[in-house]
């Protein structure tokens, strides 16, 4: 399944980009809820991603690949097999992939902020069902995902202090293989997307971090 990229934090390296990549679910039926940064009172805090039977709240962010900001439109489990939604995933015509095609529901204006709250335009709140689901027990990062994040942390050119917000490897097809030649680099956003959020982004880079539940 697709795991969107994100900015992670380390006391030693600061912020570093963990590329989006395809990962193996821990078990059949599991779906990935991405982590997200959210502004709360005094700074930005990290809410870690998790595996579960459904996709929960992830800040209202548009990550692409089916993660449109509300739920998940990238695929579904049917009788023990995962079927990809060809309307939002680039699926090869060969390889025996199980696919269907269903355009996602309109989510209004598509924005590319990578955090929720503050003076950003992303102010989506979790629904009552999403709040209840957040309170249940979930599975955290798999060993494959942990290794992927560790490799990103060790790569100097993935650190914000080195790439200034434009990581050379933004996405890749395989986890834990930071190959700049086979990975996808970060691309500049369209000019109309740049509308007064530079200071907001800088404040995000200076924010605090939490794992799972908000904490300083």
Q: Summed up, what is this model?
A:
The chain is α+β, with helices and mostly antiparallel strands. About 15% of the residues lie in helices and about 20% in strands.
Question: What's the structural domain tally?
Answer: 1
Mean pLDDT: 80
Give me the strand/helix succession. Answer: EEEEEEEEEEEEHHHH
Secondary-structure-based class equals alpha+beta
**Residues in helices, as a percent range:** 10-25%
Low-pLDDT parts are 190-216
Total DSSP helices: 4
Shape, principal axes of CA atoms: globular
Please summarize the sheet with the most strands: 3 strands, mixed
Radius of gyration: 17 Å
What's the count of strands?
A: 12
Description:
The chain is α+β, with helices and mostly antiparallel strands and 216 residues long. It has one domain (2-61, 112-205). The chain has helices at 128-134, 143-154, 160-163, 198-205, and strands spanning 2-3, 6-10, 14-18, 21-22, 31-33, 36-40, 43-47, 50-52, 75-78, 81-85, 99-100, 115-116. Strand 9 and strand 10 (81-85) form a beta hairpin. It starts with a strand and ends in an 11-residue tail after the last helix.
Topology:
Layout: E1 2-3, E2 6-10, E3 14-18, E4 21-22, E5 31-33, E6 36-40, E7 43-47, E8 50-52, E9 75-78, E10 81-85, E11 99-100, E12 115-116, H1 128-134, H2 143-154, H3 160-163, H4 198-205
Parallel strand pairs: 6-12, 10-11
Antiparallel strand pairs: 1-4, 2-3, 5-8, 6-7, 9-10
What structural keywords apply?
three-stranded mixed beta sheet; globular; 12 strands; 20% strand; 216 residues; disordered C terminus; alpha+beta
